[in-house]
Amino acid sequence: MNTGKKGWEVLQTGTALHKIAHRENLPCCTLVAMWTLDVVEDVCESSVKRYAAFESDWWKAANVYDPEEPWSALEASQSMFGGVIAYEEEVDDQAPPLTPGRWHIVQRWRRLDLGDDGMEDDRVEQGASGHTYLAYADKEGKGVTIIQSSIAKGYRVNKGIWEGNAGLKGYSVGILTLPE
Which is the most buried residue in 51, 81, 106, 155, by most CB within 10 A? Predict the structure, then answer.
């Protein structure tokens, strides 16, 4: 599978995901889960409910239903795509890098209970807030396209440069780099 090409195809005007994302203000993890299912399984359903029914246990993990598993959105996508997760307990001056010409799934948390041993024992505690989104790094490694959604702001696409802390200073961050 050409993840790069297919990743863009499922976001095009007229696709199932594009229609739903423009009709509803999707939660961030829901957008990423639907994108993952369309790219890997060619699900392309007509509603969020139908996507969720495709594989309900996977859907729950992809949408971070369990506060004991804050990184489950990344792990669920990794179970479909493969790829490698980079983890930064708290970003200071440098965000984890993106790989040129590749899709990434980025998950960030603020005020997460970090535990002791990397991401495995992190937990969501009261007051924690997170966000999950897609990032495509251009082939030159200079620009990035961020595709995201939220209940408050809906679907949006932003272009920029991934440099320094990439706006992630103070966040706990996991980045899944997808295979080519």
Answer: 106
d(CA 161, CA 134) in angstroms, rounded, equals 14
Distances in whole angstroms, Cα of residue 109 to Cα of each of 65, 100, 127: 15, 24, 11
Which pair of tokens denotes residue 168?
Answer: 């992630």
C-alpha to C-alpha distance for 136 and 4, rounded to whole angstroms: 8
pTM of the model: 0.95
Tell me the helix, strand and coil percentages in the chain, rounded to 5: 30, 25, 45
d(CA 92, CA 85): 18
46-95 pLDDT, tens digit per residue, is 999 999 999 999 999 999 999 889 999 999 999 999 999 999 999 999 99
Q: How far apart are CA 13 and CA 145, in angstroms?
A: 17
Give the C-alpha separation, 88 to 113, whole Å. 14
- Pairing status of strand 84-88 against strand 129-137: unpaired
d(Cα 120, Cα 87) in Å, to the nearest integer?
11
Supply 16's token pair.
Answer: 């199932």
Nearest to 81 by CA among 111, 133, 39, 112: 39
